[in-house]
Amino acid sequence: MVGARTFSYVRIGLILLACLCLAQLQLNGGSAAANPDAVWKKAGADEGLRQAFERATYALKDSGHGTWRGANAAQRLTLEFNDREARLSHPDGSVSFHLTGYGYGDRLQKPAPATLTGRGNRVEYQRGDLTEWYLNESQGLEQGFTLAQRPGTDRASEPLVIALGVSGELRPAQKADDSSALFESGKGVVLHYAGLGALDARGRILPSRLEVRGGEIRLIVEDQGAQYPLVVDPTWTQQQELTASNGAANDYFGYSVSVSGNTAVIGAFLKTINSHAGQGAAYVFVRSSGMWAQQQELTASDGAEGDCFGYSVSVSGDTAVIGANQNHFEQGAAYVFVRSAGVWTQQQKLTASDGAASDYFGDSVSVSGDTAVIGANYKNTEQGAAYVFVQSGTAWSQQQELTASDGAANDQFGFSVSVSGDTAVIGAYGKTINSNADQGAAYVFVRSGGTWAQQQELTASNGEANYYFGYSVSVSGDTAVIGAERAFAFQGAAYVFVSS
């Protein structure tokens, strides 16, 4: 029971962001107008100045007749608030939402009429004991609720419920095995709603979840025995634009990417490290409660200028392999990192047993469990090769060098590689097929008893010269996908192969 003199509140925080491509602003040469927060971070400003900057940049203005409007250029959003609802508009669709009720079980209180006020980059809906607020920032639009007291009495340990009505072109949907809601247009996911968490005044994490019921989203918190105030913090996000915490112009963050479960590794092969231009870096991000956050920046222990560490990356569970194709006079190298208790450390540097200058070993990398495949597509007059390494304990050793049975100069075998268990696929986009130069091919190798053998050469059934079939490859189980980036007058195509 909450006493009359006890100030209690529940805070529900929401972040609403537009769906952007990974590192879109960097690839487009993002400007201060497009992403002022990135510029602010690079300037090294402290948190207080940053907040003042955001209040000015993302200000919401009273446009009269009880309506407040604003914009979020970083997320490509326009915002409107009236006494009934909040509306977000994005080039790919819009969505409106409003509080429909709060309380326990299905006995939800109807919200009282609201008084809408604003200041700087914040607006508030004041409804007596309940205040709903929005904060416009570069990360998106944060929504919160403050409850001055517990909303009624639960029956038989019923959970606390906050219900939001949703309308507009973008409608919520929920996967059967997921605690998130997706908002899609014809172009894909525009908004992603996830990351629900709840914490009481003693710091105890409370079980919580969200549910989609038609045009309504319900935030559900098991608050039995909790001490108010509670902090309930779901997130509306773009699933998600990732940038490096220390990103700078010309880093090429996002040139290579790999994901395994809730871990993503992103390469920035031209990153300057300690004044060494082009030494390169890779960044690990982890997902928790639907939100991605940078876990660590990886660099080579012996990194040097121009190594291009991060030109290729691959992650499998707690193991990551990072290619540095221009290490040591362009002979190339690959670095294995392992994670323990949330910290990544370099385990080993891999090089080819017959490596030579200008092999570009590490142009491509792939790891699956205790097996890694490294491509060296410039080896032997650009015929190319790929090297298989296996792990035993904490040590990696070369198991076999792979080459195509019909390899020839300029094939670029090893420009792309992918491994899944005992199957590896190696791309050779420069392969000549039936006199068609650069039509390309991909080769399937399988391992039996520790030995790899070529199983099949794959080509496009409608391939032509300059298709670059094999420019990218990926294999998982018995399915392989091969990219042909220049097919159909550079329109490009991908071909799916299955093993039987």
Task: Describe the protein's topology.
Blueprint: E1 10-12, E2 14-16, H1 24-27, H2 36-42, H3 47-57, E3 61-64, E4 67-72, E5 77-81, E6 86-90, E7 93-104, E8 107-109, E9 115-119, E10 122-127, E11 130-137, E12 140-147, E13 160-168, E14 172-173, E15 181-185, E16 188-194, E17 198-199, E18 208-213, E19 216-221, E20 230-232, E21 235-237, E22 253-260, E23 263-268, E24 281-288, E25 291-298, E26 309-316, E27 319-324, H4 327-330, E28 333-340, E29 343-350, E30 364-368, E31 371-376, H5 379-382, E32 385-392, E33 395-402, E34 413-420, E35 423-428, E36 441-448, E37 451-458, E38 469-476, E39 479-484, H6 487-490, E40 493-498
Parallel strand pairs: 1-20
Antiparallel strand pairs: 2-12, 3-4, 4-5, 5-6, 6-7, 7-8, 7-13, 9-10, 10-11, 11-12, 13-19, 14-15, 15-16, 16-21, 17-20, 18-19, 22-23, 23-24, 24-25, 26-27, 27-28, 28-29, 30-31, 31-32, 32-33, 34-35, 35-36, 36-37, 38-39, 39-40
Helix pairs in contact: 2-3
